[in-house]
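[Discussion] Sanity-checking designs against the backbone

I'm trying to build intuition for which residues belong where. Below is a structure token string of 171 positions. I'd appreciate it if someone posts a full sequence so I can compare it with mine line by line.
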């Protein structure tokens, strides 16, 4: 039952990551991740910034779709947890053996999640490697630092599932 709650929380965090993308596109498309131009000039001389209607509409549709398809079921999984376990599929290993592979996956996910949660600066700079000028604003840097930390928290949450499977195989 605890595994189902962990799965629900992890699904909720992942859906919040994608809703984040939609909301940034909807409200501040100029602060969204830069797209590679592959040799085209990135300099544009305009009097006022463009409205970018299609990016805003795409952000609205993305945020709404993720909310209805993933977030609402995740919230219901967290609030109304059903008894039963999460199926990991058929394993070629005997049932009585210890699942060291799940320990490895859990530790790798835990380490990656902790690195993203504690040191997000390098990941944010890598996200904006196509156009570092977009990262000059403090608000943009804080916004995407929060995104990387939320991603690290979701990876850390997902790593608990294989760890629990390893602990259960010790019995």
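Best answer:
Here's mine. Compare freely.
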């Amino acid at each position: 039952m605890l595994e189902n709650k962990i799965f629900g929380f992890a699904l909720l965090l992942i859906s919040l990551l994608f809703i984040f993308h939609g909301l940034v596109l909807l409200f501040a498309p100029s602060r969204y991740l830069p797209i590679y131009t592959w040799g085209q000039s990135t300099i544009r001389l305009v009097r006022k910034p463009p409205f970018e209607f299609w990016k805003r509409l795409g952000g609205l549709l993305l945020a709404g779709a993720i909310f209805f398809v993933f977030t609402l079921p995740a919230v219901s999984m967290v609030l109304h947890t059903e008894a039963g376990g999460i199926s990991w599929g058929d394993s070629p290993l005997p049932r009585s053996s210890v699942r060291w592979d799940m320990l490895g996956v859990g530790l790798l996910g835990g380490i990656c999640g902790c690195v993203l949660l504690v040191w997000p600066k390098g990941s944010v700079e890598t996200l904006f490697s196509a156009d570092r000028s977009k990262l000059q604003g403090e608000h943009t840097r804080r916004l995407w630092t929060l995104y990387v930390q939320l991603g690290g928290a979701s990876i850390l949450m997902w790593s608990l599932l294989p760890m629990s499977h390893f602990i259960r195989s010790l019995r």
